[in-house]
TrEMBL record:
InterPro entries: Hexapep (IPR001451), Hexapep_transf_CS (IPR018357), LacA-like (IPR039369), Mac_dom (IPR024688), Trimer_LpxA-like_sf (IPR011004)
Domain Maltose/galactoside acetyltransferase, first and last residues per copy: 5-59
GO MF: galactoside O-acetyltransferase activity
SMART domains hit by this protein: Mac (SM01266)
Family: Belongs to the transferase hexapeptide repeat family.
Keywords, ordered alphabetically: Acyltransferase, Repeat, Transferase
SUPFAM superfamilies to which the protein is assigned, alphabetical: Trimeric LpxA-like enzymes
Membrane-crossing segments per the record: none
Listed Pfam families: Hexapep (PF00132), Mac (PF12464)
Protein's name according to its UniProt entry: Acetyltransferase
Sections of the chain in a coiled coil: none
E.C. number: 2.3.1.-
Length: 203
């Protein structure tokens, strides 16, 4: 018979009140408590904690401005140069995969957790999780919520306050509740920002 952890990671109904899951949960909470109490001068220790917390990190360890919250941490992979602003929440009941060069604004929430719509089943404390995947070169604006079973492509900008309920393709700006594609990212964007960069270096 499968363990509750195996059921959880498979996306099936499971019960969180399980000794193995409690152990993982408490380990994460201890690491987060230390992390969120670190000072600006303890950058090295912050990176050590994140490396221990996450399932996988890039060689360039992530930078997350405290406070930061997660359920397990050990179900989350982050790529190179990941940055998150204040109050990031990653509920990694299911696997979370974040690519290279991803930036989060403040109060971004990744919620893999789900609960049955039927109240009777929900009241038996059965729940489930579905994965979240974010590609490379993605900027997620402040107060964005990313729901379970969502995949965000490469080179995407998600506008502030969006609620992402469905997959977002590559190379787009997406906004709203529910989040939808506003427009494609194109050569005009590249030209505009190249000019802005040139102006920056001129001054």
């Amino acid at each position: 018979m499968r363990s509750q952890k195996e059921k959880m990671l498979a996306g099936d109904l499971y019960v969180a009140n399980d000794p193995e899951l409690k152990k993982d949960f408490l380990k994460a909470k201890k690491l987060l408590r230390e992390y969120n109490q670190t000072t600006e001068e303890q950058g090295k220790r912050r990176k050590e904690i994140l490396k221990e917390l996450f399932k996988k990190t890039g060689k360039n360890l992530p930078s997350i401005t405290p406070p930061f919250y997660t359920d397990y941490g050990c179900n989350t992979e982050v790529g190179e140069n990941f940055y998150s602003n204040y109050e990031c929440i990653i509920l990694d009941i299911a696997n979370v995969k974040i690519g290279d060069n991803v930036m989060f604004g403040p109060r971004v929430g990744l919620y893999t957790a789900g609960h049955p719509i039927d109240a009777a089943i929900r009241n038996e404390y059965l729940e489930y999780g579905k994965p979240i995947e974010i590609g490379d070169n993605v900027w997620v604006g402040g107060n964005v919520v990313i729901n379970p079973n969502v995949k965000i492509g490469n080179n995407v900008v998600i506008g502030s306050g969006s609620v992402v309920t469905k997959d977002i393709p590559d190379n787009v700006v997406a906004v709203g509740n529910p989040c939808h594609v506003l427009r494609e990212i194109n050569d005009n964007d590249k030209k505009y920002w190249e000019m802005e960069k040139a102006r920056y270096y001129e001054n």
